[in-house]
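Annotators were shown the component list below and the corresponding predicted structure, then asked to write short factual statements about the assembly.
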Amino acid sequence: MIVEIIILSVLMLAALWTVMTRSILRSAIGLAFVSVMLTYIMFRLSSPIAAVFELSVCTGLISVVFISTITLTFPLSKEEVLQHMKERLSRFWYLPLILILVGLAFSLAQVKLNLTLPPPEVEQDVRNVLWKLRPFDLAGQVIMLLTGVYGVLILFRQVRKK
Amino acid sequence: MLSLFIILPLLSLMVINLLPKELMKKIGTLMSLILPLAQMLVVVFIFLGILDIRPGPADHFFKFNLAIDNISLVMLFSIAIVILVTLLVERHLIPDADERFNFLNLVLITFTGMNGIVLVQDLFSLYVFLEITTVATFILISFHKKRDALEGAFKYIILSALATVGILSSIALIFLISGDTSFAVVHQALQNSRHAFLIDFALAIFLGSLFIKGGLVPFHGWLADAYSSAGRAISILLAGIVTKTLGVYTLIRLVSSVFGFDTEVKGVLMFIGALSIIIGAFAALGQHDFKRLLAYSSISQVGYIILSLGCGTPLGIAAAVFHLFNHAIFKSLLFVNSAALELQTGTRHMDKMGGLAQKMPITGVTSLLASLSTAGMPPLSGFWSKLLIVMALWFSGHFAYAIIAVLASVLTLGYMLSLQNRVFFGKLRPELENVKEASFGLLFPMIILAGIIVGVGALFPFILNSLIFPIIIK
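Structure shown to annotators:
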């Protein structure tokens, strides 16, 4: 239990860093780190298929989209970054406060959802799931990813040219 | 056979990207026009029973879990019409050949995604196709890379990401209960499960997420910005069919075929529907920008669809589907009108227009027809669907909601007539003296869509017998 809490805390901090960091490269690294933590949690929760998917898609393929974006764009100047960070902090100062308050409310109310259910009987072999049971979804996810890459190319290639 | 609805747009996408790009920039759109036309024909043939829909080799290979019924047929037909109109006007609204080529690719991806949403019979596959369409839509909104378009796309991304998390969490919970994600198994499992709290929780998240995707009040924050800031051709696609397929059709399909109508679901749907009708109509009344007015009008009209669905009766579902079709047609027409006006006058601000019916008579007449149909004036198509909605509400004992629906129609008439008055009637402003009617490329789709509005209104008895009654009986 303590291990899970530590991993979840690290995951949340990494996620926060991913969103708040000023560099898109650090953001990509942060996202990959979040994915690794998530993969480990899924593996500990006996969901190896979900863990493999998380690792392959988020850490692997999404990084490709990030790298394409980094290649095709220019970083902001130092002055612009500072200005941007100041504005962001002044606009969203209340977000961490809300998070803490919600956490406190849940702890004080001692909410017990009692959602324990027997795990569904599902195929455990990743090969069977991907190629025999859900090839249609796999094709769909490939289309989704290609659409993302295509979007990056359309939106950022001309910026780079300019 | 059904898998062709998904495979063919994808194949076209591959073909236009594999053949020489310079050639495809010239004839790609023309080639792609065949797709929506063929889809319309195939839908009509299936509807008439001329064409067989037995599973083919592709269905077996990909293990496609697809099915079709009258609701799907109406949606496939609506998707094909709006895609056809978008491709017809594309050449006139996007002058740059490179941009046009990119736009065509994205339209084909959206086409694939929407057809997938309509045909799949599995929750996870539905999620995959929802995301394909959503990702293509983000790119389409920010396509021209203008500041307000990027802001609109960003709002859409953030809210849509929330909806995505909600849908995925809900599917995970449902999978936990049912052990499967196919519609039939989930439906059975939800009926027999003892985990009432968990089911209600999953349902609440799913419905909330679809309300975001459909732009319903109070999750409508992104819609007006996205519709108004997107490019002209993109707005037609977005307002005409994309959000209706992503949010509204999915809601109709899941509630009527998977989740079922219990008292809470009906209550939530009707409340959100009524709220959207009223807030959308009042917000539309205060607008000065043509496209923003149409965006708020969309929220209000989608409210009618959800209100009707909330009746939970077969008549309510049939009326919702019929209004969804009508809305796709008249809203697409109004957005084509808006594109033509912006192109010819250089503005979308209605207070800077006036008396344009003299200069743009066809745009004026078609816009008037679409406006009156939106307001539910007889004998146009919108009148019949609104009449069915009010009847469904009245017969199911929801008298207060029926009265709200009727009174809101008066509001709709108010803002639509105000639009007509400010743009097309009155004295022509001196600076608009040199304005000319839109080109034939824009007028042609306007005439087709206006013809459908009048035709559906005139042929309503036939449509009632052949399309609406079968939905009710099923």
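Statements collected:
1. Chain B touches chain A at residues 10, 61-65, 102, 105-106, 109, 112-113, 116, 124-125, 128-129, 131-132, 135-136, 138-139, 142-143, 145, 175-180, 195, 197-198 (CB under 8 Å).
2. The radius of gyration of chain B is 21 Å.
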